[in-house]
From TrEMBL:
One of the Pfam families matching this protein, by short name: Glyco_hydro_1
Protein name per UniProt: CAZy families GH1 protein
TM annotation in the entry: none
Top-level division of the source organism's lineage: Bacteria
GO biological process: carbohydrate metabolic process
SUPFAM superfamilies, alphabetized: (Trans)glycosidases
Length: 74
């Protein structure tokens, strides 16, 4: 279950819009794994940069792709 609470930029300035988009990406990245079967690029980069994940195999990636949800209700 996901409690979808959108974030809104503080102003219409591009920097605030960008920050709100990045915050939404950080908050809901796992939905991509469940629905699309892959990690989003921004999380791949974050995990690699922080040495948080180095043991996902090609077989694991296949399992993720094949194990996506049939319905994602927000």
């Amino acid at each position: 279950m996901i409690n979808m609470t959108p974030l809104y930029p503080a102003t219409s300035k591009p920097v605030d819009i960008f920050q709100a988009q990045k915050a939404m990406q950080r908050r809901y990245w796992f939905a991509d794994v469940q629905a699309l079967g892959t990690y989003p690029r921004h999380m791949e980069a974050f995990l690699a940069a922080n040495n948080l994940r180095d043991d996902i195999t090609a077989e694991d990636r296949i399992t993720l792709r094949e194990g996506t949800v049939d319905l994602y209700w927000v």
